[in-house]
Amino acid sequence: MSVTVLGGGAFGTALAVALGRKGPVTLWARDVSALAETRQSPRLPGVTLPDPVSLEADLETAARHDTLLLAVPMQQLSSLLDVIDAPLTGQALVACCKGIDLSETVGPCALIARHKPAALPAILTGPSFAADIARGLPTALTLACGDEATGRALQEQLSTPVLRLYRSDDTAGAELGGALKNVIAIACGVCIGAGLGDSARAALMTRGFAEMVRLAARLGAKPETLMGLSGLGDLTLTCTSDLSRNYRFGLALGRGEGFDPAVTVEGAATARAAAQLARDLDLPLPVCTAVSDLTQGRLTVRQAMDTLLSRPLKDE
Known about the structure:
The chain has helices spanning about 10-20, 35-40, 60, 75-85, 110-115, 130-135, 150-160, 170-195, 200-220, 230-240, 245-255, 265-280, 285-295, 300-310, and strands at about 5, 25-30, 55, 65-70, 90-95, 120-125, 140-145, 165-170. It has about 325 residues and is α/β, with parallel strands linked by helices. Strands 3-2-1-4-5-6-7-8 form an 8-stranded mixed β-sheet, sandwiched between helices.
């Protein structure tokens, strides 16, 4: 089966590099001219595209391959799917983005199913940084697909000697874990940026994880999925590393500093979607709601902290 990565950002390029070390892969980007000239991406300094990676400027041509890795920001996924004219019948569409679509309030697999119902949706998610994958450092991810045969085939096709994929049939759990951990990472960044300490961060991670499991279970996911790489594993990485965009964004919020608007921060949009789901489902998600209000300027850091600490005492 042939593979195309749609999206020339850091993560899409890193996946193309990793898979290109194994065999032929196509990389589509909105502007491939610079990549074609240098075989290097400014988002991955020091990394060169292997020879088996071919570059494609035409989206319809790139989309003819059997397996498409959709490596665009979550809020752009819907428009990408709509721009592709072909129905993509029987093709595996693997979402490589994390978040909840703001307009449709669903994750990437559900979005794929709505926009390309003849395709086979899957999601690749888990604790990973693009630079680590591109450099060939050992990484383990979750590959979730509702169709067992497709999931097994994708697991074999996309695994490499240093990129180990664990298979799951719980697409809802995998996509919610990957989406919601970004919200908690913003909260943890705010905590450290405001000087509240590591103990407070540990509390936020733990209570935030409880919210992740609570919402996932209400939406039909398996709680145990959140205990794996796509939930707890990704949460641990994203809430503790300066390489995480969402964590760095939270740090800037906590310090009262600006943040580069060109950097994609999926957790900000996901927090808004999670807060809307909390209202729709009458489900208590205080950390997610506080992050939503913070990122929209409705609360100050001090007000958000007071709101969380003044909640009624309860059993764990």
